[in-house]
Amino acid sequence: MSAFRSAFNYLGSQLRQVGLIIALLAITIFFQIATSGITLKPINVSNLIVQNSYILILAVGMVMVIIAGHIDLSVGSVVAFVGAMAGVMITQWNIPWWAAIVLCLGVGAVVGVWQGFWIAYFGIPAFIVTLAGMLTFRGLTQIALQNQQISPFPDEFRALGSGFLPDLGGGTSLLEPLTMGIGLLATALLVAQGIRSRLARKKYDVEDEPFAWFILKLVFTAGIILFITYLLASYRGTPIVLVVLGLLTVVYAAVMANSVFGRHVYAIGGNLNAAALSGVKTKRVTFMLFVNMGVISALAGLIFTAQLNLANPKAGDGFELDAIAAVFIGGAAVTGGIGTVTGAIIGGLIIGLLNNGMSILGVGTEYQQLIKGLVLLAAVAFDVYNKRRSGGR
Amino acid sequence: MTTNILEMRSITKTFPGVKALQDVSLAVQRGHIHAICGENGAGKSTLMKVLSGVYPAGTYDGEIVFENETVAFKSINESEATGVVIIHQELALSPFLSIAENIFLGNEQQSGGWIDWNKTNLEAAKLLARVGLKDNPITKVRDIGVGKQQLVEIAKALSKEVKLLILDEPTAALNDEDSAHLLDLMKHLKGQGITSIMISHKLNEIKAVADEVTIIRDGKLIETLDMHTDDISEERIIKGMVGRDLGSRYPDHTPHIGEELLRVEDWNVYHPLDHQRKVVKDANISVRAGEIVGIAGLMGAGRTELAMSVFGHSYGHNISGKVYKNGALVDTSTVAAAIDHGLAYATEDRKRYGLNLIEDIKRNISLVSLHKISKRGWVDSNQEIVVAERYRKSMNIKAPSVEALAGKLSGGNQQKVVLSKWMFSDPDVLILDEPTRGIDVGAKYEIYGIINKLADDGKGVIVISSELPELIGICDRIYTIFEGRITADVPRGQATAEYLMQHMTQEREKDNR
Fold it and tell me: What residues form the membrane-spanning segments (chain A) (predicted)?
């Protein structure tokens, strides 16, 4: 009985994380029933991933910025600007598509250096600098495109947004073999990593989460990955953007959880003064965060442009708000210091699912906006309530 | 024939676990200047907060009689309406509003919701004349110095028909000239029949203007002295402030003092906002291996400013001077450089400057020394737990686990986390700023033990404290600091509370710089 109780207490301490997953599952199940099974059809799941990839990528960068206690309102405009530059480079300057990709990521870095300088070293609040960036980069987009659209892009470039990894089954197999392989490999790595870190903890004689909970978590996560693998394999295989997104998530989740840099970001967001007095180079870390955000925005811009096969002066409008909403639904604190990369990804998926499900159901965009707004408010209200109940943090 | 404007009778105020005031009575005569003095934390400010309604009636025991009527203020607004106005140490003016707007803030000169600017500025000018301030009432408050801001606060009090003016350390932030002007003003107001209560550390000022002085110590009333009839010397007041038994509240310790570790020479620091004001003046201090050195000074004397400016220029403007480590000149102008040279600074304000309250114990402890538990930029989180566990046991941090949030710990345990953080960085010299502030007696004893242990390990420890008995109890040598200047270097044998207090309240000699 006491084992049960300790497990229950542990669950309580993980309420935020567990609550987020339950919310995601509940929304999925709701739409699966409401759309009479369309939501989890292989083609829809594939589309869901592809069409939300750029928001999810932006959310990964945004959560780091928000953990540090800042915000970035300019990402939507940077997405458009980088798309425009890609269009100009490829179609007007005849730069090869791969070189254009590298150059565009460089453009993103320069944007980050520009904004990071004003925020970190000049001391202007990020809200102002990136609000200015939102306007300037939108303006630069329109100048670069001369208010025209640029289209089409070469096929290799388009593959970045809407392509799939090659079908090793020759298009005839029931389940695409490469995707199944990747899925099984990912699952195996996940399980191995989970067991390894648990053993390491045991070796250090460190108190750990209850065994039952560990197994449950592992089985659940592996199950989800295998299920999505199965769905993707029975459609067209692995979207290239999923590979990009997956790598990005794994790397940045690790950086935020276990790197010195990540610790410094949490320290700055949690208490800037204490971090500075502990020798954290607060300005440099802030600067690097915005450079990073610039590169990530550029990546999102490239993927978005490739997907639409179009560089458009109005591209990326409102992306910053979707990314910020994803981060806050994912449990980040407005005041900084709290948040996770995986939380932001789940938050982004919740928004994506809502968009997708409501579109299938034929709900008008006006109601979609309304409902997304209420979901954001409810998620943060739940956080605040939780915090108050546990007696403040 | 009572001439008392105010009588506070048997005031007792309790905070969870602490009796801040115990049966304190105070009688203030009409038209007098009544000084209240005592060490930091003695209960002076608490008493004034009880009087002004910051702590509403009902949260304390006792009775307050103002102008022969029993009063029970529920808020500052009520006390102000009755004519009791308190001016806090931290001025409460809005920097971007004009002098006149500040004076009438919350009490606007209006007709039907619209501000009558002519009346506002005219009335403000009259009030400014009363406090001897010649500035135009439409000047923004941020454009005048601290001394003048203090006068604006008084003008604001006068606008409220003040009968009893309470000044909390009115000259703490002022230079000599502004202080002198303020004291003159207080006497002038006394001539106009306004009664004042003045909390002050500065005994020369008390002697200059006060009619009576009440001494509070450890939340208890010690005595009220009449400055006119008895010939009260500063020594007499100091005795009242510090006279308590030291007892054995400090662990025994035999020092083993070695070579000099750190020396700071000709250290000068200016105020970060008021660039004209020198906060630290030509300070010279040193600490040797195994030595515990105290810095004794009253609030605002420049103790913390000295420490923080040495530690990575974390405070101040236009800092000059030299820092020697093991005899070699070193650069400590960034926190990272200071840490690299083996310095550590544990702040007096744990919550604002010491801890990340929303993070757990282990991450707070590891923050300074992440490089010690990481490879190529990746932190070994298992080792981190092991390290934190070690400190939890050795420092006796009372928490369910090292994953408990720092913000949920008691003051004493938070302090132990801060100390663990700096001990893990393995510094040569630790500067501990008010290491026992807000900590209960038992935990204090533990902290003293830790300090002794650090010294025995061959580290140099600098302890900054407002509590003289604490410094006398644990230090091998004590510097006194007054108005930014080191006024004495007192070896253990000579350190008595009276002797230290003398050097903390007056300069040894007036030099002409």
Answer: 20-43, 55-83, 95-114, 120-140, 174-191, 211-233, 240-261, 287-311, 323-355
Task: Domain of residue A256: give its range.
Answer: 31-163+239-385
Domains in chain A, number? 2
> Does residue A128 share a domain with residue A75?
yes
Q: Which of A31-35, A202-206, B333-337, B419-423 has the lowest mean pLDDT?
A: A202-206
Extract the tokens encoding B28: 């203030």
- Ranges of beta strands (E only) in B91-177 are 110-111, 114-115, 164-168
CA distance B486 to A159: 72
Spell out the residues 6+ positions from residue B487 whose beta carbon is closer than 8 angstroms to its own.
B480, B481, B503, B504, B506, B507, B508
A245 in the same domain as A204: no
CATH 3.40.50.300 fits B256-342+428-513, yes or no: yes
CA distance B381 to B390: 14
Domain spanning B1-83+163-168+179-245: which CATH class is it, in words? alpha beta
Last residue of a domain, one of A183, A205, A238: A238
CB A346 within 8 A of CB A354: no
Out of A261, A274, A279, closest to residue B355 by CB: A274
**B461, B449 contact by CB (below 8 A):** no
Residues of B in contact with A275 (CB under 8 A): 356, 367
Place of tokens 């590169």: A295
Last residue of a domain, one of A205, A238, A271: A238
Let me know if residue A217 belongs to a domain.
yes
For A277, nearest residue in chain B (alpha carbons): B335
According to the model, what pLDDT value does residue A164 have?
87
Query: CB–CB of B352 and A270 under 8 A?
Result: no
Nearest to A204 among B338, B358, B382 (CB): B382
Q: Which of A144-148, A237-241, A293-297, B86-90 has the lowest mean pLDDT?
A: B86-90
A42-67 vs A341-360: helix axis angle to the nearest 10?
140
User: What's the CA gap between B397 and B401, in Å, rounded?
Assistant: 9
For the stretch B37-71, pLDDT in tens is 877 667 888 898 899 888 888 888 899 999 888 98
Q: Are A173 and A296 in a shared domain?
A: no
Query: Which of A68-72, B122-126, B214-218 has the weakest average pLDDT?
Result: B214-218
- Alpha helix locations (H) across A69-96? 75-87
Contact B335 A337 (CB under 8 A): no
| Equal CATH topology for B1-83+163-168+179-245 and B256-342+428-513 | yes
* DSSP E strand stretches across chain A: none
Q: Test A204 with B383 for CB contact under 8 angstroms.
A: yes
Give me the residue label for tokens 């070796």: A203
What average pLDDT is seen over chain B?
86
Among B362, B370, B420, B432, most A C-beta atoms within 10 A, so best to mutate, is: B370
Closest chain A C-alpha to B429 CA, distance in angstroms:
15
The fraction of chain A above a pLDDT of 90, given in percent, is: 62
Residues A64 and A179 in one domain: no
What ipTM was predicted for this assembly?
Answer: 0.84
The pLDDT confidence band at residue A129, using thresholds 50, 70 and 90, is: very high
- Token pair for A234: 């029975």
pLDDT recorded at residue A252: 95
Query: In this model, does residue B474 exceed pLDDT 50?
Result: yes
Preceding omega of A152 cis (within 30 degrees of 0): yes
pLDDT tens-place string over residues B220-230: 888 888 888 76
What is the pLDDT at residue A53? Answer: 93
pLDDT score, position B291: 94
Same domain, A117 and A177: no
Please choose, from the candidates A27, A58, A46, the residue with its C-alpha nearest in 3D space to the C-alpha of residue A245. Answer: A58
List residues bridging with B431 in a β-sheet.
Answer: B345, B462
- With tokens 């005899």, the residue in question is B327
Return the structure tokens found at B51: 């009087």
Q: Smallest CA–CA separation between A50 and chain B, in Å?
A: 32
